[in-house]
Design brief:
Number of helices: 14
Low-confidence stretches: 538-566
Mean pLDDT: 88
Largest sheet: 43 strands, mixed
Structural class: alpha/beta
Number of strands: 73
């Protein structure tokens, strides 16, 4: 039976009340309750039996203050002791205010401990049992050295507790101590927030560690910690620091504003993190050294001051579905003999290289995306890295560089919009390239330097600003089934002493097929240029200076697109990626994506021998001029080709003048001729409503429509027709012939571009032509588009491209006034290069 003992000042507690807390404890039996009246009680209490001390009038009404000396205010020597709603003042900030002896037990509930630490000691060996401590809704404040120290065989639990204002470490665990902390708030410590030593164990849940002077969470020796749904904010060193053979598992944690690195893993430590974020680190987001290992899944690392991820020594890093955004150095930097594995990761807008691999480090990239960095991927290690199904877009410099003596295997890589060359294989480097695309690079698609002999198979190079493939003196290698289209310089340039072998390569729509220096020794096997066999002996060499920028021949420059050539094989995922990179058009992208999925199902049914469902592939594109209808139509044809639903997937663009004749009997043959050119691909009818004018009379357009309807039925599996025009007028076109409504069952609406999207179009054009908009120019350009009337003269994307052209012309006039313009002046488009609104 529990007995109640009352403690009150003399004359206040009634008969039987004790005048000191110590007297009541000595009189109590195990399990008794000691109720304390309000006031400050200056005592050194020893709890040597299972008693409960509680404040009669609630929290803050009772203070137990240690008298001068070194003894704690409360010493716990017995099991199952408890303090409720009591404030404890220690004798000195550097000494224990509450001390729990080995084998004892204490519960602190709604208590405050000030001016000294809570010190809990457990047995040094497992046979000595454990010391059990629970703190609920408590506050520990103003200690020195440590706020809470758990040593030896201690099992402790913190619930809704705050540790603050500690001149030292907030919470220390040593020996075999174990702590389960839920909703802990630890802030304002001059040392680390929490420190684990020996074989200590920590489980941290829904907690905040803020404003520590050193590491937020420090694990040493053989300690282990798990942390979930917790935050570490503005630590004075690392956010989480593991050394020795420590282990940590983080789930849904946030680390922000670390003065040093966000996550540090050293020696033989191991870190596992899932769903976490590291932001604004003063050094690296993740630093792994020694032979440590780190495994991150679904994590984000934003705005690191140094490289977002840095590995050194023999460290191992594995990142899956992680995102790196912003940062003053590299996205991922591996040195020494480190190994880094990146799977489905994204790296965006870092100031240096997206992924940098140096010394003898090894990187394995699968399904990753690098965008907006200075350079995309830089391999400088001979140890043999692998990059597969990875995309590099919008780099300011080289897309992928294999440095001198390095080795890499590239498979299915896509490089788009590089500010210099797409792929560079440096002197003596070893590179194997299988599949993939290089497109819209300001420099050459692929550059091979002296002594390098890459093996390249199935690479598609489209719209390079310079050569498709450039081989320097003494370079070589084998290039099999490499396609080059729309190159601004000779598609293939071979310098003196270079002896590459080109097999089954196709060149189309290029300024010139082959440029060679004197002494070049290329081997061409079964290669074609615009459908014509290409041989070394029949192609004129470039001028004597041998530069890859030599002017194309008049014959090749005059050659237009060859509709008769077979189109190149393209990857469906690459094409969908190209679609989604278009500015704006979110609704159209979604509709086309849905169509592709539907077509895939149709294709699979056909391959399985099942009948295809009734389906019309013909489309109506409704939108104002300049909204990207032709661009999407061209992509739609290529997508159907990749799906195996069209033979060629090419686009034939026509309007009324290409279909309608000038006299009786002329329209039918003219429409049929245009239709036949589109067989195997897409017939794109611009301003299709003009075939059905509002007041048709005897207009020949109705004959063209009737002819189209019949041809669409006769060749329904071998052509796709897209009718485009203003949204309001397209209803009239569809209603002009009963056969049109049944064949055009789907309409895609192309909405006008927003001002920000028009700015992006100008920036894209600027990047392709090596110009850069200043921040002021970008802001005023947005205002110009925002104020631009959206009447009949507004051309959406076309207006954006026209403004870019006008800006370059005005910039040229301005720069011409400079005696010796700098490179920056030559590429900068400034606010006063914008056309005046009145001129529009």
């Amino acid at each position: 039976m529990t007995t109640r003992h009352t403690v009150a000042p003399k004359g206040q507690g009634g008969r039987g009340a004790y005048q000191t807390i110590g007297e009541a404890i000595r009189a109590a039996s195990p399990g008794d309750l000691v109720v304390i009246a309000p006031g400050t009680w200056t005592e050194n209490l020893v709890l040597d039996r299972a008693v409960v001390l509680t404040a009669e009038h609630g929290r803050g009404s009772v203070v137990i203050a240690a008298p001068p000396g070194e003894a704690p205010a409360v010493t716990v020597d017995g099991p199952d002791c408890a303090l409720h709603n009591i404030t404890v003042w220690g004798p000195d900030a550097g000494l224990p205010a509450v001390s729990v002896s080995p084998g004892a037990g204490l519960v602190l509930e709604e208590c405050s401990v000030e001016g000294g630490r809570v010190q809990v000691k457990g047995p040094e060996d497992e046979e000595g049992g454990t010391t059990a401590v629970v703190l609920r809704r408590c506050r520990l404040e103003g200690a020195r050295l440590a706020g809470l120290h758990l040593a030896g065989g201690v099992r402790a639990r913190l619930e809704d507790t705050a540790v603050t204002g500690v001149d030292g470490t907030g919470v220390v665990l040593s020996g075999t101590a174990s702590l389960d902390a839920v909703r802990l708030r630890l802030e304002r410590t001059t040392g680390s927030g929490m420190r684990l030593r020996g074989r200590a164990r920590l489980r941290l849940t829904d907690s905040v560690l803020a404003g520590s002077g050193r590491a937020g969470l420090l694990l040493e020796d053989s300690t282990e910690a798990t942390a979930g749904e917790s935050r570490i904010e503005t630590p004075g060193a690392a956010g989480v620091h593991l050394t020795g053979s420590a282990r940590a598992e983080l789930t849904d944690c946030r680390i922000r504003g670390a003065a040093a690195s966000g996550l540090v893993v050293q020696e033989t430590a191991r870190l596992s993190a899932s769903g976490c974020s590291v932001a604004d680190a003063g050094a690296n987001g993740l630093l792994v050294t020694g032979s440590a290992e780190a495994e991150l899944a679904d994590c984000r690392i934003d705005r690191s001051t140094f490289s977002a991820v840095h590995l050194a020594g023999t460290a191992v890093g594995r990142l899956a579905d992680c995102r790196v955004r912003g940062g003053s150095e590299h996205g991922v930097h591996a040195t020494g003999e480190a190994r880094i594995e990146l799977t489905d990761c994204g790296i965006t807008d870092v100031a240096m290289t997206g992924v940098s691999v140096l010394e003898r480090a090894v990187a394995t990239l699968t399904g990753c995306r690098v965008a907006g960095s200075a350079a995309g991927i830089g391999i400088g290690s001979p140890a043999g890295s692998t990059v597969a199904d990875t995309t590099v877009t919008g780099t300011k410099e080289i897309g992928v560089q294999v440095a001198k003596g390095a080795a890499v295997s590239l498979a299915g890589i896509r490089i788009s919009g590089a500010g210099a060359a797409g792929l560079v294989v440096d002197e003596g480097a070893e590179a194997t390239v299988t599949g993939g695309r290089v497109e819209d690079c300001a420099g050459s698609g692929a550059v091979v330097w002296t002594g390098a002999r890459p093996e390249v198979t199935g690479l598609h190079i489209d719209r390079p600003g310079k050569n498709g493939v450039f081989l320097a003196e003494g370079a070589g290698g084998t290039f099999t089934s490499v396609d080059v289209t729309r190159a601004g310089f000779p598609a293939l340039h071979v310098a003196k002493g270079a002896d590459p072998v080109f097999r089954h390569c196709r060149i189309r729509d290029c300024a010139q097929a082959l440029g060679t220096d004197e002494g070049a020794e290329p081997v061409l096997e079964d290669c074609t240029a615009d459908g014509t066999p290409l041989t070394f002996g029949t192609v004129a060499a470039s001028p004597a200076n041998g530069r890859p920028g030599a002017a194309p021949s008049a014959a090749s420059a005059a050659k237009g697109a060859d509709d008769s050539g077979e189109p190149e094989e393209e990857n469906l995922e690459d094409l969908l990626g190209e679609l989604h990179e278009l500015v704006g058009l979110d609704r159209v992208k979604q509709d086309v994506g849905s169509l592709v999925k539907l077509m895939q199902t149709v294709r699979r049914r056909e391959e399985a021998g099942l009948p295809a469902p009734p389906l019309s592939r013909h489309l109506v594109f409704a939108g104002n001029p300049g909204t990207g209808k032709t661009t999407v139509a061209r992509l739609y044809g290529r997508l159907l080709k990749a799906l195996g639903l069209l033979r060629r997937g090419h686009l034939v663009e026509v309007d009324r003048t290409a279909l309608v004749g000038e006299y009786v009997g002329h329209t039918g043959p003219k429409t049929t001729a245009a239709f036949n050119r589109a067989l195997g691909g897409v017939l794109f009818i611009d301003e299709a409503y003009s075939l059905a004018p509002a007041f048709a009379g005897n207009d020949f357009g109705t004959e063209a429509v009737a002819t189209l309807v019949k041809l669409m039925e006769d060749h329904r599996d071998d052509v796709v027709v897209i009718a485009a025009g203003y949204p309001g007028d397209m209803h009239r076109f569809i209603g002009s012939n009963p056969g049109l409504a049944s064949r055009f069952g789907r309409t895609l609406l192309f909405e006008d571009y927003e001002p920000g999207e028009l700015v992006s179009i100008v920036e894209f054009q600027a990047g392709r032509h090596r110009y850069e908009l200043t921040p002021t120019a970008r802001t005023e350009l947005f205002s110009l588009f925002e104020a631009m009337p959206r009447g009949e003269g507004f051309g959406n994307g076309r207006s954006a491209r026209q403004i870019f052209q006008e800006m370059t012309e005005r910039q040229a006039q301005r720069v011409a006034e400079f005696t010796a313009p700098t490179a920056e002046q030559l590429i900068s488009l400034e606010a006063h290069d914008l056309p005046h609104p009145a001129a529009r």
